Amino acid sequence: MRNHESKSRKVKIQNRLSEVNEIELLEAWIESVKPESGSNPLSFDPLTNKAPVGRLPDGSFSRYAGCDRFSQLPVSKKTKDGLTQCKYKTMTDIQRASLPHSLSGRDILGAAKTGSGKTLAFVIPVLEKLYKARWGPEDGVGCIIMSPTRELAGQLFEVLKSVGKHHGFSAGLLIGGRKDVDAEKEHVNALNILVCTPGRLLQHMDETPNFDCSQLQVLVLDEADRILDVGFKKELNAIISQLPKHRQTLLFSATQTKSVQDLARLSLKDPEYLGVHEESDTATPNRLQQTAMLVPLDKKLDMLWSFIKAHLNSRILVFLSSCKQVKFVFETFKKLRPGIPLKCLHGRMKQDRRMGIYSQFCEQRSVLFSTDVASRGLDFNKAVDWVVQVDCPEDCAAYIHRVGRTARYLSGGRSVLFVMPSEMKMLEKLEEKKIPLRVIKANEKKIQSVSDLLASLLVKYPELQHLAQRAFVTYLKSIHKQKDKEIFDVTKLPIDEFSASLGLPMTPKIRFLKQKLKGKTVSEALSLIPEDTGNENLLELPIKKPDRAKSDVEEVEEDLLLAKEAQEAGENIDSKGHDMLATRVTKKKKLKINVHRPVGTRVVFDEEGNTLPPLARLAATSSGADSVQLNKEKVNQRYAELRKDLKVADKEDKDLDHKRRKEKRIKEKMKYKRGRDEQEEEDEELSGSDAEIPGGRVDKKSKIYFDSDDEDGERKGDIAREGIAADAISLAEQEELALKLLNSMHS
Ligand SMILES: Nc1ncnc2c1ncn2[C@@H]1O[C@H](COP(=O)(O)OP(=O)(O)OP(=O)(O)O)[C@@H](O)[C@H]1O
Asked: What sequence ranges are listed for the domain Helicase C-terminal (predicted)?
């Protein structure tokens, strides 16, 4: 027994000695032939396969800058073994360009096309840095790898595990949507490498006792431009403030930032900027065939349906602009049975389900409807045949990342972008960014219409109607919120036709466009109605009437529907569900209600219970001048009454709404106090907000954690915004309050 123990101790000592020797050798090698700062190793001639590697007979070292095989790099045997087992032999361009610099400890800003192997370009230096520092369990967190989405973090974690499997480091995946946060807290201090999303990392920084990153050696931001953009600004600043300045920082993305401000935030030291495909003719992979098709908004679903039916043996990734769009298209198309499995992925799904869907999609032919949650970094086993962008991406970078889900590494792929007539500017912008797009015309004969099928589905399944309405509103909202107004202009969209194309019997109201009328309340708007229109027969309201042929009965039903949705959404509407201001105000067309319209289209009862058409009793019943005068007076009187009623109703609604918001805030606060961080149920939705609108993030009121792909995060942001608006409590006041609380806790 004792013999055995001493033997194993001997082996350990030997291993340690050989590791120490290896590290000394690696350090000497790296130091003696490191590439000049500012050089791009891609311009060096590769070493031949037979050239000796490492220490040469004359005591010098082989050159590693410019070599094209992992075996020629000054990296440890453990890393080399991991790479060999994963069958990685030859380096990709970004790996060739960046590894010689990153292995010598320099900060890196790496930009290379999608699918070009950026992950290994940071995983290898991370492993090597910690290995050379002889990092052990007692040293705590040595490296943080941050990703903007959970799926991507999960994927990076897998690469790290497989390439680093011969090293003894402990690594953990810290992402939102996992329930085991308490268990995580217990272990997080023992981890050497954290692969995380910013929200979850910050949560640990704030909540985990003794969480310590003060010894951090390497910080990696994958999809760095995304993490550096406004959506993550607060989280990132808070995280960075807790990290030591003396560290190595590696930033990678397909669309990199060079903004000095951003880099200053990260305290980079003379970073090596390695944009390996900058000289390339195209910004996207060469094996990617990209097309664009002019598709009007109301024909998008027809086109998508026809496309799917024509590619039943493919793996198709479809991008839509919001999770409500995704849900609607997924649920309805599923019922229409296109003959290929359908799946959907969006930020409101529970994390386990998201992961499950992601792997299922990698395995079989299917269509995956997704929001931008799947647009960055994900490597679907090189198996996506088509990327279909039904809704236009917010900018060229988003386009590049979406199409980058196909044609990865050496494989080919195809993509198609549906562009609406109002978005043609996008094509110019893409061309400017060196994105080779072929604009093609759809074969009209092959397009199958689904609108009628959808309409019947919506009749049969009322819940789908609700989904359709939400999809409709959130789509328009996403367009309205887009920053690039040259491309996105909600007023240019065929709104009624769009509504009909979703199968909706009538156009839902578009509440958010209220702003166009400068935020006036219902009663204020009513007060704008002229006392005397100058035309005895017409009442003009600033309402866009979508379908002139639509009957009044339809209008009543429509209002009821809208009222229901608006109430759910917590909007200010009057007690009868009328939101006259917000109703279909798009092109500010005026609805003219003819008070002389035929009796019988809309049934109204008078005090005796007799049926009357609306306002008919106010209208002229004879052609005599007296009666016209009389009716005008009645009309004005009636309006005055209406205004009064509505003012009262409006006030009641405001009070109710205020109360409701207050209750909601209190509820939310309680929720966060309990430390709940789980993903909300898919169907828990907040009034008209759609979280997948990039840049739509808002300041958070208090400690709220979210990942970019976490629609709940956006929700929480919205809640915070509501809270701020309602309370008008400033950040300074909140901080003061928090301080007081803290002081009282300590005293
Ligand atoms: N040297 C290599 N040899 C063979 N395959 C590689 C090599 N490097 C990376 N790959 C493979 O290429 C694919 C794309 O790699 P990776 O996901 O790192 O790309 P990326 O540049 O990070 O893409 P994105 O910009 O979309 O995040 C992966 O399947 C990976 O396994």
From this structure: 300-458
